[in-house]
What does this fold into?
Amino acid sequence: MERNLKVRTNDFAHKCVKLSLSLPPNTLGNHIRQQLIRCSTSVASNYRAANLGQTKRSFIAKISIVIEEADECIFWIEFLLKENLFSADACSDILKEAKELTSIFVASRKTAEGSENRN
It folds into this structure.
């Protein structure tokens, strides 16, 4: 599962970067581009860091950052749709992946918190 999620988060970041690079070069486009690139690459990099955690507590802290950043990706992708900067077809797969990844990481944190509380 860990290898699969490393690949998924990396692919997700790449897709978000590609989507971001096709935004119009205006003030709004530039702002969203920076934000979506930052939060999507943070999902991938912090997930990798979470797996290097020395303790359950450090894993939980990193995975919490991953959850926040994945949720921020959802926000920006939904914003793109609301502002009609992209069609629903252009964003549906990436939005679905952002929501799935968020759900996976929330469940992972709950499992880790539960096992930490049993120790």
About this structure: Residues 88-118 form the longest helix (31 residues). The radius of gyration is 15 Å. The chain has one domain: 2-118. The domain at 2-118 is CATH 1.20.1440.60 (de novo design (two linked rop proteins)).
